[in-house]
């Protein structure tokens, strides 16, 4: 088997990430229909709370170790010590399986305490948490296997396993929900329980696929490439030190978890504020929380996935330049391209989603003016989240880990300080605005640090970014106008009508932005990025 090229690897990562996010949004349509309008708010709120908790345990269970395993496996394989790669796989599969058992046990037997800490004492989440604990048993070992496969430079297999995992998970969710809610006329609680158990089904099938791929990968190694211990002295081998890998993984882990931790904070603090200060009913709390904490999040994660996927390929290039002690001008050029490329991709996607927000919400949920407005604010939150994440990664690659961690801590602090007053005065918008402000402020300071060192901002960059902003704004106005005009001829209150308007407006938006970017030269950034050598 031929190893993946860097271009193929990046393409597969992008496709698998975007596909998974889109699939995670599409399944909502039949899921919501089968749950029914009566239990819809409660089911979405419950499912959202449980998955926020699950995501936190998921991140703890993997802890960035798969990436470190991938690097170690690649280092051993480069020296022909494939036997060491096998020992590494067995050793850390055993270790991470133990981690999975401990975390799964904590989730299962301590589900009540998890509910108290992360769900403001909502005991409805206890049973779904127990169902999810089964998935935690296998997720850590799955992560190790993915890292192992990536270390052999077969990124496409690892990415494809994620696609398999998502398809299997969604298929079981929809099958179980239809069976319980439509055929058996059962409880939405049972449907939510089975929907959470679907994570175990998906992870298991992905793990089986990677085990099969492992044997294929091993057979692809020519016998002459395998070296013995005598041929490669131990002094030339990379020493495996789990503590050092953990130390290097923790900063990236903390950055990766910020959105999950803030969502957990939202679901706890929002409920407490609405119960104890505003004295709202559980029905009202469920409906409002499900709008910003689950429904809007599902939609904007497509935007986040797109932004992170297309920007991720730039980070290794920066790492390679810095490690090679490249010329200042080369690093400066790459970072300027990164700024322009990031804005070129994220900003029009954000504006486009805002422009079609009304019918986007209707297509996936039910018509709601409040939901549409929350989605618009959430899109702005997603934009600044993407910018903040990318800048944090740049700081860490540039060996400014301490500064990165300080900015991360300050972002948490700002969010916590603003949460109460903004929720009181802005309702369901409050948590979203608080997060947006935190990312906006600390993203500004992170960019100032980078700009001070590499002097990124000049007249040319300012003009290029301004062109992108103008193009995106024009596209937003045209799309919003087309949305209003089409609504006069097509009934946008139905899901089919909303989907038709949504599709037409999306095509119009892409054409308008593409033509404008081509005319003013903004699209040239794609050619410049394509010509950037990573290694």
Q: What's the short version?
A:
With 535 residues, this protein is mainly α. The chain is built from 21 helices and no strands. The protein folds into two domains: 1-227, no CATH class; 260-534, no CATH class.
* C-alpha termini separation: 23 Å
Classify the helix fraction into a percent range. over 70%
Q: Write down the overall geometry.
A: globular
**How much beta, percentage-wise?**
under 5%
Radius of gyration: 24 Å
Largest sheet: none
Total beta strands: 0
- Oligomeric state of shown chains: single chain
Instruction: List the domain count as a whole number.
Output: 2
Specify the structural class: mainly alpha
What's the pLDDT, averaged over the residues? 81
| Number of contiguous helices | 21
Unreliable sequence segments? none
Order of helices and strands: HHHHHHHHHHHHHHHHHHHHH
Would you kindly provide a written description of the structure presented here, covering whatever features stand out?
The structure is a single chain. With 535 residues, the chain is mainly α. The protein folds into two domains: 1-227, no CATH class; 260-534, no CATH class. The protein has 21 helices and no strands. It has helices at residues 6-26, 28-35, 40-62, 65-78, 82-109, 111-118, 126-151, 155-183, 188-219, 242-256, 258-276, 282-312, 314-323, 328-355, 357-364, 369-397, 401-426, 429-454, 459-487, 495-519, 524-530. Helix 6 crosses helix 7 (126-151) and helix 10 (242-256) runs antiparallel to helix 16 (369-397).
């Amino acid at each position: 088997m031929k190893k993946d090229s860097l271009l193929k690897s990046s393409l597969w990562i992008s496709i698998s990430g975007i596909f998974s996010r889109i699939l995670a949004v599409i399944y909502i349509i039949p899921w919501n229909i089968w749950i029914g309008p009566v239990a819809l708010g409660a089911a979405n709120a419950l499912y959202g709370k449980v998955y926020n908790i699950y995501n936190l345990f998921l991140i703890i269970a993997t802890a960035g170790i798969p990436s470190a395993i991938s690097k170690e496996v690649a280092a051993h394989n480069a020296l022909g010590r494939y036997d060491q790669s096998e020992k590494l796989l067995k050793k850390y599969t055993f270790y991470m399986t133990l981690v999975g058992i401990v975390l799964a046990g904590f989730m299962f037997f301590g589900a009540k305490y998890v509910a108290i800490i992360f769900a403001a004492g909502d005991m409805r989440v206890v049973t779904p948490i127990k169902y999810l604990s089964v998935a935690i048993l296998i997720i850590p070992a799955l992560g190790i296997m993915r890292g192992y496969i990536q270390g052999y430079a077969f990124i496409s297999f690892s990415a494809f396993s994620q696609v398999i995992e998502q398809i299997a998970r969604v298929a079981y969710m929809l099958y179980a929900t239809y069976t319980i809610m439509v055929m058996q006329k059962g409880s939405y609680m049972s449907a939510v329980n089975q929907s959470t158990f679907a994570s175990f089904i998906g992870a298991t099938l992905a793990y089986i696929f990677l085990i099969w791929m492992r044997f294929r990968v091993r057979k692809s190694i020519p016998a002459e490439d395998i070296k013995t211990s005598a041929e490669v002295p131990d002094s030339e081998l990379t020493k495996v030190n789990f503590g050092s890998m953990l130390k290097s993984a923790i900063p990236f882990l903390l950055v990766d978890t910020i959105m999950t931790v803030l969502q957990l904070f939202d679901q706890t603090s929002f409920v407490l504020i609405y119960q104890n200060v505003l004295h709202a009913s559980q029905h009202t709390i469920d409906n409002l929380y499900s709008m910003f904490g689950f429904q809007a999040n599902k939609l904007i994660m497509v935007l986040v996935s797109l932004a992170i996927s297309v920007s991720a390929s730039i980070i290794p290039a920066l790492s390679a330049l810095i490690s090679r002690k490249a010329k200042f001008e080369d690093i400066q050029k790459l970072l300027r391209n990164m700024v322009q490329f990031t804005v070129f991709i994220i900003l029009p996607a954000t504006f486009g989603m805002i422009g079609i927000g009304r019918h986007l919400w209707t297509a996936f949920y039910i018509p709601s003016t409040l939901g549409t407005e929350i989605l618009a604010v959430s899109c702005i939150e997603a934009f600044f989240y993407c910018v903040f994440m990318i800048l944090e990664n740049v700081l860490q690659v540039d060996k400014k880990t301490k500064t990165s961690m300080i900015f991360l801590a300050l972002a948490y602090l700002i969010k916590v300080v603003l949460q109460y007053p903004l929720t009181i005065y802005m309702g369901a918008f409050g948590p979203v605005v608080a997060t947006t402000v935190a990312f906006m402020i600390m993203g500004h300071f992170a960019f100032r640090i980078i700009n001070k060192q590499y002097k990124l901002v000049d007249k040319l960059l300012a003009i290029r970014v301004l062109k992108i902003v103008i193009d995106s704004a024009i596209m937003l106005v045209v799309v919003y106008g087309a949305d209003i005009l089409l609504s006069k001829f097509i009934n946008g209150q139905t899901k089919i009508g909303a989907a038709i308007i949504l599709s037409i407006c999306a095509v119009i938006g892409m054409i308008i932005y593409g033509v404008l970017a081509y005319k003013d030269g903004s699209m040239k950034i794609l050619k410049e990025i394509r010509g950037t050598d990573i290694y």
